[in-house]
Design brief:
With 330 residues, the protein is an alpha/beta fold. The chain is built from eleven helices and eleven strands.
């Protein structure tokens, strides 16, 4: 029996200096049966020429070009609509796979026919320096809940409350380490109205559709931190960039709240998730960056979203008092 084809989707936008690393990491996979779709989304640099050179040298690499810039969601959808693989993998044009990634994931999916989506741990790098060698290891939320069963090294999400647990714990199912069955993309595509968090919503839609996820703790992917990353949480970074992130997160919340198929538990969990993200992630980021006005607005929105829960109200009042003291001191 022939080994199944795997399609790797790589959206490309002005990555002339980096995309060759991503493509090389695909070509160096120990699993050879690949279709590597690089979708250019309107690059103004030499990205297209880089991909064309690889496509000329290896027939597994193919270049697709969007007629207009659609964003990362639209670029991925262009690839998904052309994908021929039984399994679909995703890679950003500035990141890299470990050589064994695809082979391992295919083996897990082939031997666990009830699993639709598998994902793995990853490391964060800045240049040649490993900043975080395991994102999963110290994240207890990955293990949270009573709905995970173990099959050897594979941890399987069970039960009918997967979307709710996803909201409560924001379990990390990074798209960049994921390999999914074709059935997932036949049911779910990326929402092109979302400039950010499109991967989060894609995953949420897959869970609502009843697809089963599983993960393993092995590091399969190298995520690279640099100034051109779309999202950045570094204090001292670009406030305008953070404003865009907060705006897009609010848009995500509105989109999910507008769904008519949310259970009561999912809706409650969404309130908790939104408040947590706005207050602890974005509110404190603004405060540490010295923008007390933005911090106040975001923390207050989170407090309202949390229905004035004592934890949020007390922390907001504490922040507000600190803010007034700073203003008085000039």
């Amino acid at each position: 029996m022939s080994e199944p084809l795997v399609t790797i989707i790589i959206p490309v936008f002005n990555r002339e200096a980096l995309v060759h690393y991503s493509i090389e990491s695909c070509l160096q996979q120990t699993y050879p049966h690949l279709e590597i779709l690089c979708i250019d989304d309107g690059s103004s640099d030499g990205s297209v020429a880089v991909v064309e050179a690889y496509a000329a040298a290896d027939e597994r690499v193919k270049l697709l070009i969007n007629e207009r810039t659609k964003g990362v969601a639209g670029a991925r959808n262009t690839g998904l609509l052309q994908a021929a693989g039984k399994y679909i993998a995703f890679l950003d044009s500035d990141d890299r796979y470990k050589p064994f990634h695809i082979e391992k994931m295919v083996a897990l999916l082939e031997s666990n026919e009830d699993i639709d989506w598998v994902y793995a741990d990853f490391e964060r790098r800045q240049g040649d320096t490993v900043k975080v060698d395991s994102v999963f290891r110290n994240n207890e939320l990955v293990r949270a809940g009573k709905d995970t069963v173990t099959r050897g090294e594979l941890h399987v999400r069970e039960g009918d409350r997967q979307a709710e647990w996803h909201l409560l714990y924001e379990r990390i199912a990074g798209l960049h380490t994921s390999v999914v069955r074709r059935a997932v993309i036949e049911r779910c595509l990326f929402d092109e109205s979302l400039v950010m968090f499109e991967d989060w919503y894609f995953r949420f839609e897959a869970l609502k559709a009843g697809f089963k996820l599983a993960y393993l703790f092995a590091v399969h992917h190298e995520y690279y931190i640099h100034d051109a990353n779309l999202c950045s949480s570094d204090v001292g970074g670009d406030i305008a960039k953070k404003d865009r992130t907060v705006q897009q997160f609010r848009q995500l919340l509105e989109k999910v709240f507008a769904r008519s198929d949310l259970t009561q538990g999912e809706r409650k969990a969404l309130h908790n998730y939104g408040a947590q993200k706005l207050f602890w992630d974005y509110g404190y980021w603004y405060e540490k960056a010295g923008d007390l006005q933005r911090a106040d607005a975001v923390m207050w929105q989170a407090t309202v979203l949390a229905s004035f829960a004592p934890l949020y109200l007390s922390r907001y009042l504490y922040f507000w008092c600190r803010k007034q003291l700073r203003l008085l001191r000039g």
